[in-house]
């Protein structure tokens, strides 16, 4: 079996750095700064989708906000995260038996730095993420990129694990099963509405689920 893990809201709690980075971007652009709870809802899906579809910004303005966000994130935000309690132990145990990888909409270079910073990088066969030019940013495209790099043949026993709807939707588009998790930034209703195959409430429950499959 193969397990693909989302990063933000699944492996690490990165809310602090992302909230600070988006606050910095909105402040610099002169836009009204959403409250922290509202910004938390932006974590997970690609910012380009959120800015253009949910906030109604133009593509040009959205690209500007993303650029300014990255100014903060590269210098500070990438250090403002912590692995969820029990996650390191889970990755150590699961990687000893199965092949695991990361599939994230976060820029790949940042994802790799964050995992190395927390001592988690070596558990993964491959770490795949978005490109800085947004040519690969949709979760489905990232998943396909990761599967290609893992040389996955049959997808029958490959699972995507994540906390938001793009993880579940991307898994479905790629013919994978999905496991939604509730300690991140999504909700049970969100994960259920996108037909996650399983939904787990805690890291310990996720570990039990993985070893029961």
UniProtKB/TrEMBL annotation:
Q: Which SUPFAM superfamilies match?
A: HAD-like
Q: Name one Pfam family in it.
A: HAD_2
Output the InterPro entries linked to this UniProt entry.
HAD-like_hydrolase_sf (IPR050155), HAD-like_sf (IPR036412), HAD_2 (IPR041492), HAD_sf (IPR023214), PGP-like_dom2 (IPR023198)
Top-rank lineage group of the source organism: Bacteria
The record ties this protein, via Gene3D superfamilies, to: HAD superfamily/HAD-like (3.40.50.1000), Putative phosphatase, domain 2 (1.10.150.240)
Molecular function terms in GO for this entry? Answer: protein tyrosine kinase activity
The entry's cellular-component GO terms read:
cytosol
Output the PANTHER family linked to this UniProt entry. Answer: 5'-NUCLEOTIDASE, PHOSPHOGLYCOLATE PHOSPHATASE
**Protein name per its UniProtKB record:** Phosphoglycolate phosphatase
Taxonomic lineage is:
Bacteria, Bacillati, Bacillota, Tissierellia, Tissierellales
């Amino acid at each position: 079996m193969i397990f693909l893990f989302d990063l933000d809201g699944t492996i690490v709690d990165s809310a602090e750095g992302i909230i600070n980075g988006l606050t910095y971007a909105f402040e610099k652009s002169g836009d009204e700064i959403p409250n922290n709870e509202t910004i938390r809802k932006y974590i997970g899906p690609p910012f380009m989708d959120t800015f253009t579809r949910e906030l109604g910004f133009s593509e040009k303005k959205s690209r500007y906000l993303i650029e300014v966000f990255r100014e903060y994130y590269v210098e500070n935000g990438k250090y403002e995260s912590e692995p969820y309690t029990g996650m390191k132990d889970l990755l150590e145990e699961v990687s000893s038996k199965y092949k695991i990888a990361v599939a994230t909409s976060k820029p790949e270079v940042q994802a790799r730095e964050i995992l190395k910073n927390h001592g988690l990088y070596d558990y993964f066969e491959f770490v795949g993420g978005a490109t800085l030019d947004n040519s690969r940013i949709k979760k489905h495209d990232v998943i396909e990129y990761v599967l290609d790099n893992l040389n996955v043949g049959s997808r029958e026993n490959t699972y995507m694990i994540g906390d938001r709807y793009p993880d579940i939707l991307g898994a479905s588009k790629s013919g994978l099963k999905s496991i939604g998790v509730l300690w991140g930034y999504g909700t049970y209703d969100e994960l259920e509405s996108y037909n996650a195959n399983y939904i787990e409430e805690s890291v310990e429950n996720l570990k039990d689920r993985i070893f029961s499959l």
